[in-house]
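Box 3.1 A note on notation
Throughout this textbook, protein chains are presented in two layers. The first layer is the amino acid sequence; the second is a C-alpha coordinate string describing backbone geometry. Keep the layers aligned when reading.
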Amino acid sequence: MATEWTQIERHVGQDLQFVVSLSGVSEDITPWEVDFDIFKQAGAAPVLSKTEGAGIAVDNAAKTLTITLARADTLSLEPRQYQAQVARTDAGANTVLAYGPIRLLGRPA
Protein backbone atom coordinates (compact mmCIF):
# COMPACT_ATOMS: atom_id res chain seq x y z
CA MET A 1 0.00 0.00 0.00
CA ALA A 2 1.36 3.41 -0.99
CA THR A 3 2.10 6.05 1.62
CA GLU A 4 0.84 9.60 1.04
CA TRP A 5 3.07 12.37 2.34
CA THR A 6 1.96 15.84 3.35
CA GLN A 7 3.01 18.69 1.13
CA ILE A 8 6.72 19.29 0.63
CA GLU A 9 7.66 22.93 -0.04
CA ARG A 10 10.92 24.26 -1.39
CA HIS A 11 12.08 27.26 -3.42
CA VAL A 12 13.10 26.75 -7.04
CA GLY A 13 16.88 26.33 -7.09
CA GLN A 14 17.23 24.98 -3.54
CA ASP A 15 18.51 21.53 -2.63
CA LEU A 16 15.92 19.11 -1.29
CA GLN A 17 16.37 15.79 0.46
CA PHE A 18 13.68 13.63 2.04
CA VAL A 19 13.37 10.05 3.20
CA VAL A 20 10.67 7.54 2.29
CA SER A 21 10.30 4.82 4.92
CA LEU A 22 9.22 1.39 3.74
CA SER A 23 8.03 0.18 7.11
CA GLY A 24 6.50 -3.27 6.98
CA VAL A 25 8.78 -4.44 4.16
CA SER A 26 10.79 -7.48 5.21
CA GLU A 27 12.42 -8.44 1.91
CA ASP A 28 15.78 -7.18 0.66
CA ILE A 29 15.13 -3.90 -1.19
CA THR A 30 18.66 -3.65 -2.61
CA PRO A 31 17.79 -5.23 -6.00
CA TRP A 32 14.67 -3.11 -6.48
CA GLU A 33 14.53 -0.65 -9.36
CA VAL A 34 13.11 2.58 -7.95
CA ASP A 35 12.08 5.84 -9.67
CA PHE A 36 11.05 9.25 -8.36
CA ASP A 37 9.00 11.42 -10.73
CA ILE A 38 7.50 14.91 -10.52
CA PHE A 39 4.47 15.69 -12.70
CA LYS A 40 2.58 18.92 -13.40
CA GLN A 41 -0.59 16.88 -12.86
CA ALA A 42 -1.59 13.27 -12.45
CA GLY A 43 -1.35 11.39 -15.74
CA ALA A 44 1.04 13.88 -17.35
CA ALA A 45 4.59 13.12 -18.46
CA PRO A 46 7.22 13.65 -15.75
CA VAL A 47 8.99 17.02 -15.70
CA LEU A 48 11.75 15.62 -13.48
CA SER A 49 12.87 12.05 -12.81
CA LYS A 50 15.43 10.39 -10.51
CA THR A 51 16.58 6.79 -10.32
CA GLU A 52 18.56 4.67 -7.90
CA GLY A 53 22.17 5.85 -7.89
CA ALA A 54 21.19 9.12 -9.59
CA GLY A 55 19.21 10.90 -6.89
CA ILE A 56 17.86 7.90 -4.96
CA ALA A 57 19.86 6.11 -2.26
CA VAL A 58 18.63 2.76 -0.91
CA ASP A 59 19.29 1.72 2.69
CA ASN A 60 18.31 -1.92 3.01
CA ALA A 61 19.02 -2.14 6.77
CA ALA A 62 16.76 0.83 7.57
CA LYS A 63 14.31 0.03 4.73
CA THR A 64 14.43 3.63 3.49
CA LEU A 65 14.84 5.48 0.22
CA THR A 66 16.52 8.89 0.35
CA ILE A 67 15.48 11.19 -2.48
CA THR A 68 17.89 14.02 -3.29
CA LEU A 69 17.21 16.91 -5.64
CA ALA A 70 20.14 19.21 -6.33
CA ARG A 71 19.75 22.93 -6.88
CA ALA A 72 20.13 22.49 -10.65
CA ASP A 73 17.31 19.93 -10.81
CA THR A 74 14.59 22.52 -10.20
CA LEU A 75 16.07 25.61 -11.88
CA SER A 76 14.12 24.99 -15.09
CA LEU A 77 10.81 24.33 -13.30
CA GLU A 78 8.21 27.03 -12.78
CA PRO A 79 6.96 27.86 -9.29
CA ARG A 80 3.73 25.92 -8.81
CA GLN A 81 2.21 22.85 -7.18
CA TYR A 82 3.33 19.50 -8.62
CA GLN A 83 2.43 15.88 -7.94
CA ALA A 84 5.21 13.39 -7.24
CA GLN A 85 5.64 9.70 -6.65
CA VAL A 86 8.21 7.12 -5.71
CA ALA A 87 7.64 3.82 -7.48
CA ARG A 88 9.16 0.38 -7.65
CA THR A 89 9.55 -0.33 -11.35
CA ASP A 90 11.19 -3.75 -11.72
CA ALA A 91 9.38 -6.29 -13.90
CA GLY A 92 6.42 -7.92 -12.17
CA ALA A 93 6.57 -5.58 -9.19
CA ASN A 94 5.61 -2.19 -10.62
CA THR A 95 3.88 -0.31 -7.80
CA VAL A 96 3.72 3.18 -6.31
CA LEU A 97 5.42 3.21 -2.90
CA ALA A 98 4.75 6.83 -1.88
CA TYR A 99 3.19 9.93 -3.40
CA GLY A 100 2.10 13.46 -2.63
CA PRO A 101 2.32 17.13 -3.54
CA ILE A 102 5.49 19.13 -3.94
CA ARG A 103 5.14 22.90 -4.07
CA LEU A 104 7.94 24.87 -5.64
CA LEU A 105 7.99 28.50 -4.55
CA GLY A 106 9.59 31.35 -6.47
CA ARG A 107 13.32 31.88 -6.11
CA PRO A 108 14.23 33.61 -2.86
CA ALA A 109 15.29 37.23 -3.13
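Residues 2 and 97 are 4 Å apart (CA to CA). The longest strand covers residues 95-105.
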